[in-house]
Specification:
The structure holds 2 protein chains of 2 kinds. Chain A contains no helices and 11 strands. Chain A is mainly β. In chain A, strands 2, 4, 5, 9, 10 and 11 form a 6-stranded mixed beta sheet that branches. Chain B has strands spanning 5-7, 10-13, 19-24, 31-37, 44-50, 53-56, 65-68, 75-79, 88-95, 103-104, 108-112. The N and C termini of chain B lie far apart (37 Å). Classes of the chains: A mainly beta, B mainly beta.
């Protein structure tokens, strides 16, 4: 099955700065990479995802980049706000491709200081 | 659209006791997942159902955990007997068949004393 590594485990930034979280995966056949945000005591919620036919995807202040050659993908948050404070998880398909269940990284706790 | 429903939200039991969690997925979602999330970690898959059939239960500790989805809609996850290390949030998620955009429920938080 897939193996997903996520870094850093904690990240603290000042409001307005950018934040970058990186993940690596092991199965070169994987081609779907979502990011989930989990606020304290709440459910994980999908915030953005990318499929391997594109290298970058943006949605307002968040973007995801994918490097299939290096087998890594990153989440970029610009102009961070206190409400961005949460734990962020990357994930990849457990058995490659774009179907089936997901393997999650261990999470990055992002703190945005006002 | 209604979300993924789970109950109970919280459960406290003593070790060696049993517990059951219930999940009702989003209407029309054929695929249902149970994940275990230990404090400070990412969700870990326990079992995946497609309609009422098991697709993947390779990470399910079958000596103590069981799950069923008899009519292909709602599902029950049971732990018997519980151990201290089973303390976690049990997340149910669902997705359309063949897709892996997961929608999670609010989770059931289990504390084993």
């Amino acid at each position: 099955g897939e193996n997903v590594e996520q870094h850093p485990s904690t990240l603290s930034v000042q409001e307005g700065d950018s934040a970058v979280i990186k993940c690596t995966y092991s199965d070169s056949a994987s081609n779907y990479f979502p990011w989930y945000k989990q606020e304290l005591g709440k459910r994980p919620q999908l915030i953005i995802d990318i499929r391997s036919n594109v290298g970058e995807k943006k949605d307002q202040r968040i973007a995801v980049t994918l490097n299939k050659t290096a087998k890594h993908f990153s989440l970029h948050i610009t102009e961070t706000q206190p409400e961005d404070s949460a734990v962020y998880f990357c994930a990849a398909p457990n058995y490659g491709g774009s179907q089936g269940n997901l393997i999650f990284g261990k999470g990055t706790k992002l703190s945005v200081k006002p | 659209e209604a979300g993924v429903a789970q109950s109970p939200r919280y459960k406290i039991i003593e070790k060696r006791q049993s517990v059951a969690f219930w999940c009702n997925p989003i209407s029309g979602h054929a695929t249902l997942y149970w994940y275990q999330q230990i404090l400070g970690q990412g969700p870990k898959l326990l079992i995946q159902f497609q309609n009422n059939g098991v697709v993947d239960d390779s990470q399910l500790p079958k000596d103590r955990f069981s799950a069923e989805r008899l009519k292909g809609v709602d599902s029950t996850l049971k732990i018997q007997p519980a151990k201290l290390e089973d303390s976690a949030v049990y997340l149910c998620a669902s997705s359309f068949s063949g897709a892996n955009v997961l929608t999670f429920g609010a989770g059931s938080r289990l504390t084993v004393l």
